[in-house]
Predict the 3D structure of the following.
Amino acid sequence: MPAHSFDYAIIRLTPRVERGESINVGVVVFCRTKRFLAAPTYCDTAKVFALDASCDITTIQEHLAVFTAVAHGDPSAGPIGALPIAERFHWLVAPRSTIITTTSVHSGICNDPELVVSQLLQKLVY
């Protein structure tokens, strides 16, 4: 199998921006040659409440669900979800000033981007 390049970023939650403490809550993985884009998320509520006991976890989970919907091109993602796959990736990893952000983009080589997603989630999120 030929190797494919992929790009990824970690999705981070910083419930109290003034404190600068964050937890990893997902990954965005894009493999152009395989036309693959995924942004699974997992929010460990115990970790979130350890950083901010007053956090609105329901709203946070709703916002995280948008990452997944945009990645899948789901109609519920609105006009952003209708963009071509590369543009959706760039929208997902664009810098933002909110409690949910992404890291800078990193690159790698893989044969199976779905396997990369699983490995990154295990290593960085769970």
Remarks:
- The two ends are 29 Å apart (CA to CA).
